[in-house]
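A quick aside before the break. I want you to see a complete sequence-to-structure record at least once, exactly as it would be stored in a machine-readable document. Don't worry about memorizing anything.
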Amino acid sequence: MAQRRKPQKPVADKPGSDEPRAEHTEVRRGGARELLKSIAMGFVLFVLLRTFLIQTFTITSGSMENTLLVGDFLVLSKSAYGATVPGTDLRLPGYTEPRRGDIVVFRGHHEPIDLVKRLIGLPGDTLEMRDGVLYLNGAPQTETFVQHTDPDNDINHPWMNSWQRDHLVDAIDPARYRPTRDDWGPIVVPEDSYFVLGDNRDESLDSRYWGFVPEADIKGKAVVLYFSFDRQALGALPIVDQIRWNRIGDVLR
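That is the input. The structure line, written in tokens, reads:
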């Protein structure tokens, strides 16, 4: 006759069991992986935005006063004219073309830094300056954004002679050409190039001196100020008083 087996009591986990600890470790590892994924995705998104869409730029000189002041922080639209694919000469399509009056950021070819100026001349334009007045295709221009801080110091710069002679109109004798800051031209803007000037005409090192900006060197269009800071301002609350609150959010024109 078979004996009836007594039901066995469930065996409780021993105090030293590794199962809960292993589960906790796995949870921590999963959380770390998700964190790394988020960081990686954020970094990739940042690189894509900076490469193809927008970039920030800080004003460090007075060449564009009073449109742009030292301490202004602006947003640059790289997609406006189409961003360049890194490592190639390929430029993506933009939503607009460079236009006269645009404020542009470009790579300087006389020194390897990014610069900001106002676009004045397009390919095919004839430009000249007489007594500080800009002429575009024979017509004098009214430039309300321009300021003159040193009108009496109109001098010749050796850089001007070296390149302007190659772009003079046929009526000008290159051998007798003597350009100065406020009197030069007429010169013709070549294809795939642009002529830029600073709004602070007497204090700007621009196309008058070092020549045209190749289209490939233009990085984008300055569109808006997102911050402005005046380090020289004095007040009861230095940090607060140094912020130019009235300039934040200004659309650039």
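Two observations worth writing down. The mean pLDDT is 87. Residues 19-53 form the longest helix (35 residues). We'll return to this after the break.
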